[in-house]
């Protein structure tokens, strides 16, 4: 086993598990916020919920390690194309989505470090984000459009992956476990695809309205949009169950996904 595989594979598996924990708490918080007065939602809300627990700081450090591991793996997947997406338009789109995913989870790790006081900006307001810096360099509208394209691609990729069962290509699970993998994967990927579809809608609506972007919409904003609809609480609760199932999909990836680091060395 090469050094890179000895290092990257444990990081990737820890990262998938960390992502699963985040989405598990996101789903639970979404249900709780829908039926109570709580406004704690989204990935950052999930991390704040962990921090509020006994030994929360220790748990957050563990989550930081997992998030950084997941970021590393996403960068390896994107740059070295370990899953053979290629250089055609669809492949480039998927790889761009992987890169965006890595950046997003890196920003969550930075958020955790800020909450722990290691970095500035943990006092409630997150301070300047990498989105703000991108706006300063490129302007508001191009950044909004970039996020709109990214979320649209990621949403489409999730639906495609679920209904074409493309996730199966990346699992090395025994036959007895694949029934569970199929059920969890299809439901979980579809639910997350819906979330990203809503995020894409929010970005394109903001783009067409020529609004200043501020902080880019996240899961919290997507759920809030549904909350304002007729039967919103029931819709959110159903989607939240799907998000929880996606959390278990991520944990199944931590156990059985191919971590083909060797392809990065070709």
Structural description of this entry:
With 266 residues, this protein is an all-alpha fold. 74% of the residues lie in helices and 0% in strands. The chain has helices at residues 3-35, 42-51, 56-80, 89-115, 130-138, 140-163, 175-209, 219-227, 232-256. The longest helix is centred in the last third of the chain and has 35 residues, at 175-209. The chain is globular. The two termini are 15 Å apart.
Quick summary:
It is built from nine helices and no strands.
Name its key features.
266 residues, 9 helices, mainly alpha, single chain
Relative strand content: under 5%
Order of helices and strands: HHHHHHHHH
Helix proportion of residues, in percent? over 70%
Distance between the termini: 15 Å
Oligomer state of the chains in this structure: single chain
Mean model confidence by pLDDT: 81
The profile of the biggest β sheet is: none
Give the CA-based shape.
globular
Rg, nearest Å: 18 Å
- Helix count, DSSP H or I runs of 4 or more residues: 9
Total strand segments = 0
Structural class: mainly alpha
* Low-confidence segments: 122-128
